[in-house]
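Protocol step 4 of 6: structure prediction from sequence.
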Amino acid sequence: MAVHVFVGPSCPEPLVRQHHPDVVVHGPVRHGDLFPRMFAAGDVVVIVDGIYHHRLALRHKEILDALSRGVSVLGAASIGALRAAELDRSGMTGVGRIYGWYRDGVFDGDDAVSVAHGETGSLTGLNVPLVNLYTAVMTAQEAGVLTPEAVRDLMRHTEREYYPLRTRERILAVARERGQNAFADWYAEHLAADPAAFDQKRADALEALALAERLHSRAPQTTSPPSTTGRPRTGRLTGGTVATTARDWRTEYHRRWRNAFAPDDSALRHRVAYQQIFAEDFPDTWWEYLRRHTPAAPDGAARGLRDHVLHHLGPAAGDWYDDPAMRPRITALLCPLPDLTDPDEVKLLLRHESAEDRARVTEWLELTRRHLDAHPERSLTQISDATCARLLRLIRRVDTDAALLTQCARRGLPSLSRAALALRPFALGCLSSLKAPAPVGGEAHA
């Protein structure tokens, strides 16, 4: 068991290691980072900084997934405070003043904690986050330097600035423009004496790390620790358990993300996709998959595939189930996304995979990688759905999109766009195979 923290400009890594040398330090969190199995039951994860401007941000369901695996998740200071304010009723624990401000509606925009920084080096922030300025003006009000009206005026005018432009120099300029020269001098003097004088993000991050280490050092608990904001907590520490909600958050998108980021084998989803597209006997495998992995009823009761079909498609679908020739009607309408983190599902889906299949997957993925590295201006998204459909018709030896759609549905691909998504990483290798001479005594693989 370990304490992990995702940090960036809010609390630089050297500062974390100075105060908490045993913590596992990661860079700013981004989409997919909480799915890997390196985070196990009993671990504590502290989310401070994250990417959410030019890259895909951490999704809420990733946090819920970690909680469901027994991982305790704390949030503070930056995107961690945002996510905690949104998920404290679902088991995430918010820490610090900034979390409290978002929870109570003092701030509601991401820009209040946003910091522009480079992606390499020390990740030093280039602007003053609005929450740190708020700490400064509230301190100035308590010291009699600003009136409440002046506080509101300064915050309102600073909020109008695009967040990367909220530099220390610009804040001083805005203060002087608004006639608050005394505050400008006071603010500059305090920062000259201590650059972290009003750094609420840093203070909240260190508070969260201290709490995480205390939680990690003792047995899991199910009661909430004392509030770190001086007010009753909305959230509660659940020891890594997702609080019960009326709606199931395990959507197909959640499963897609798990399939992309969670498996130990990074090529696993491509291996399954290869079988779906190329293996001649995969329709039988898919039907067996449906038969064995029928979703449970809403009340949790187990039921067979036939009952599931009748429940969702009506009594007439019983004839479809009983007649193998009519089963494509079922697979066209009921096409769940497999869970590639389930060993039993993976074993079934890959039951006929050969060593040659795995070698070809590796070869074709490497061919695609080399091509994209050599042509950085290109991407797989430039291979259109229409182009993929033409190639799939050739592979499956059908003449129309309607016939192709039936073939795809029998293979667990419910639409041509989903089939195209599965095919794209193999498109270059497949085309190379089709252009190659047929081997002696047989046909080309595709």
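Step 5 (inspection) to follow. The chain has a mean pLDDT of 87.
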